[in-house]
Amino acid sequence: MAVRKFKPTTPGQRHKIIGTFDDITSTVPEKSLVFGKRSTGGRNNVGKMTVRYIGGGHKRKLRLIDFKREKDGVSAVVKTIEYDPNRSARIALLYYADGEKRYIIAPNGLQVGSTLMSGENAAPEVGNTLPLQNIPVGTVIHNIELRPGQGAALVRSAGNFAQLTSREGRYCVIKLPSGEVRQILSTCKATIGSVGNSDHALESSGKAGRSRWLGRRPHNRGVVMNPVDHPMGGGEGRQSGGQPRSRTGLYAKGLKTRAPKKQSSRYIIERRKK
Asked: Which single residue of 111, 113, 237, 250 has CA 20 to 30 Å from 45?
């Protein structure tokens, strides 16, 4: 995986850095795993705008991704590595031995023709999904469940990985990409390896138009509004805007928003780095 830079033939090309598509082997998605994706444009069921700065964008098709990997003991062959417009990572099409087809998040180093397996008896190799209790301590993992059978909820975006650091009774201790260290039940599943397309963080859009293609409309800062529109608005000349806060008055910096008695807080050993 690498990135491409361009000669500054236009203002948009000058700062544009995009990923290469060398690893992609198919440009047409599997028809049985695709359906149309409705976009709201930030409107609710009566057409009223409820979320600002959303609208437009290229039409997309939604790929059904298998985050549960519950076909234990059935081997699968990687048929293609594909682009997915709905996520930063690449996806891989699996052909199972019983004839079923499924998409998964493509981990780093996965090759077309590789054989994957899930379940307790699977080997701890890249792309295989196992319960945390069967994964060796120190292994790099992604696609981690929070509850058994729920499906992967953590570490799913491009280039991310977590690490299984130790075991404590019924729980495994996981270090997450944010720096948070937390306990997760040993019966939850995780996939071996890190998420692919790790150079995604190096990409630069180069122009505002690429944001419009992604469905992002121009965003107005609070300090340029009037006092009636935003708590940070108003003032003669250019003003700093005061304490950073949202349009509804909620502080944007320094205010803890996590519920103080949240049930899952007892599983967090070390909070994320600030």
From this structure: 250
Record the tokens describing residue 193, joined without a space.
């390896």
Tally the domains of the chain: 1
Question: Would residue 175 count as lying in a domain?
Answer: yes
> Which CATH number goes with the domain that contains 72?
2.40.50.140
Q: What is the largest CA-CA distance in the chain?
A: 71
Tokens of 167: 């075991």
Q: Is the pLDDT reported for residue 1 higher than 70?
A: no
CA distances from 237 to 222, 224, 228, 229 (A): 15, 10, 17, 17
pLDDT in tens, 203-249: 999 999 999 999 999 999 999 999 999 999 999 888 888 899 999 99
Tell whether the model's pLDDT for residue 183 goes beyond 90. Answer: yes
Is there a domain that residue 8 lies in?
no
Distance (Å, whole) CA 274 – CA 272: 6
Percent of all residues in the chain with a pLDDT value above 90, rounded to a whole number: 90
Q: Which two tokens stand for residue 166?
A: 């130790």
Q: How far apart are CA 179 and CA 56, in angstroms?
A: 35
Q: Are the CB atoms for 173 and 167 separated by under 8 Å?
A: yes
pTM: 0.90
